[in-house]
Design goal:
Layout lengths: L2 H19 L8 H15 L6 H8 L4 H11 L32 H15 L3 H14 L4 H13 L3 H14 L4 H13 L3 H15 L5 H30 L14 H5 L2 H12 L1 H8 L2 H11 L9 H6 L1 H4 L2
Helix pairs in contact: 1-2, 1-3, 5-6, 6-7, 7-8, 7-9, 8-9, 9-10, 9-11, 10-11, 13-14
């Protein structure tokens, strides 16, 4: 029997045992779980109590965490709450956060090294292909995922970079390069807040206040968030301050384009320019005085209604 099949059997036994301990399966089903565990162990010729063999099979991860990453790769992320998780208004995903990277695979490591060489040569398409081959052999390895995220970013495929970086931090949140690459990709896509949160996580996992690069990324993202907030507040204020642009008492200027195209206004203006006496008569017109008083006095401080002016017989016949 293939060693990989025995490892998978041990991983299943470990999953069933942990499901009893963490309350995923009720105590009423204890006997059924124990029978299932015994049957798997007998059928695959493995020792369920062999800690060393289990460590060799799944390392520091679990079958649930491995499957959780697989779901993300397939776009089927679960939103079921994690058993025992603290309630904070938002449901956590069912993907637990393993404490370390997957065991190394020599062939996958070879692909990764070739991918790194391609990155140095700026052959990003080749690097993506090589990292993908490494990921196919070890799909939960955060280094491979993070490296491919970097190659995607270098190729201006930032959405793909975000997806890989999110998988990487899910596989191992302690691998801080993935947080940095997630922060960069989100920032380029215009998600300054998400970028700031990624850099903040990176700083937390780095410890000691974080590296200079991580702090610089966080600062840049934070400044962008603050700038966007100020612009949003300024836009709201401008919209509140802006009133009607035409009509009596509206506080704004009249529609000058429409005014100049009005044939009655054009005729009146031409008459005034060619007849000084008409201009003097306009200045003495009591209706115009009333309008002027409305503009400067208690009439709301705005320009007069041009439509009303043009229909006023006293002005229209000038």
């Amino acid at each position: 029997m293939a060693t990989s099949q025995k490892r998978l059997a041990l991983a299943i036994i470990d999953f069933l045992s942990k499901s009893l301990k963490d309350g995923t399966v009720s105590s009423e089903d204890t006997e059924s779980i124990e029978i299932a565990t015994s049957c798997i162990a007998d059928s695959f010729h493995v020792d369920a109590n062999d800690k060393a063999a289990l460590k060799d099979a799944i390392g520091d991860q679990s079958l649930l965490s491995i499957y959780g990453v697989y779901e993300k790769l397939k776009g089927k992320t679960s939103t079921a709450p994690v058993p025992g998780a603290a309630s904070g208004g938002k449901a956590s995903t069912a993907t637990p956060k393993p404490s370390g990277p997957t065991p190394t695979n020599p062939e996958a490591e070879s692909f990764k090294s070739q991918g790194n060489a391609a990155m140095q040569q700026k052959d990003y398409a080749k690097a993506i292909d090589l990292y993908s081959k490494a990921i196919n052999l070890s799909p939960t390895n955060p280094i491979y995922l993070s490296n491919r995220a970097a190659a995607y970013s270098a190729s201006n495929k930032h959405a793909e970079a975000v997806a890989d970086a999110e998988l990487a931090v899910s596989a191992d949140p302690k691998y801080t390069k993935a947080w940095s690459r997630l922060g960069l990709a989100r920032f380029v896509l215009g998600d300054a807040k998400g970028s700031m949160e990624a850099y903040q996580k990176g700083i937390e996992y780095e410890g000691n206040g974080g590296s200079e690069a991580m702090k610089k990324g966080f600062k840049t993202a934070k400044e962008k968030v603050e700038e966007e907030e100020k612009e949003g507040a300024s836009g709201d204020s401008d919209r509140e301050a802006t009133g009607p642009t035409r009509g009596a008492g509206g506080g704004g200027m009249p529609d000058l384009g429409g005014l100049m195209n009005n044939p009655m206004f054009a005729s009146m203006a031409q008459n005034l320019m060619s007849n000084p006496e008409a201009l003097q008569g306009l200045m003495n017109n009591p209706r115009l005085r009333e309008m002027a008083q409305g503009m400067g006095g208690g009439g709301g401080g705005g320009m007069p209604d041009i439509g009303a002016m043009m229909s006023d017989p006293a002005l229209r016949d000038m």
